[in-house]
Write a structure and sequence with these properties.
Layout lengths: L3 E3 L1 H9 L3 E7 L4 H16 L4 E6 L4 H6 L7 E6 L2 E7 L4 H13 L2 H11 L13
Parallel strand pairs: 1-3, 2-3
Antiparallel strand pairs: 2-4, 4-5
């Protein structure tokens, strides 16, 4: 599936309308963003069953603030309407593919229930990734 450039207006529909969605928050002036972009595009082409969107933080400052984006690039993965991963930094292709595999395998309801029972953070269900 081709990567779609999103705005604040269509972000919510992308979250609600797709089981799994990956979002790349980027800036045109950001060197690491430019390096990550072809990787994101290639992995998007290899995963047509997943929605891939890019959000320019300079054109969508309100959305970036609402998503608590502190640095770019920031990758956000949403599954069934829940943010399951959000981390700043460019990833290698193998690391991005690994995260996608984890996202596909994650049982969101079970992970939320386990996090709630353990009293841990329910905002990020895939553990922080060591790149």
């Amino acid at each position: 599936m081709a990567v779609k450039e999103l705005t604040s207006a269509d972000f919510e529909q992308a979250v609600k309308g797709n089981e799994i969605a990956l979002f790349d928050f980027f800036a045109t002036w950001c060197g690491p963003c430019k390096a990550f972009s072809p990787i994101f595009d290639k992995v998007a082409d290899e995963n047509p069953d997943i929605f891939f969107g890019k959000i320019d933080i300079d054109k969508n400052q309100e959305l970036a603030n609402a998503a608590n984006v502190q640095a770019v690039p920031t990758l956000m993965i949403v599954k069934k309407g829940h943010v399951i991963y959000q981390e700043a930094g460019a990833l290698r292709e193998a690391d991005l593919n690994d995260l996608i595999g984890q996202a596909k395998a994650l049982d969101v309801e079970a992970a939320l229930a386990a996090a709630k029972a353990a009293g841990t953070d329910q905002d990020e269900l895939i553990e922080e990734h060591d790149a």
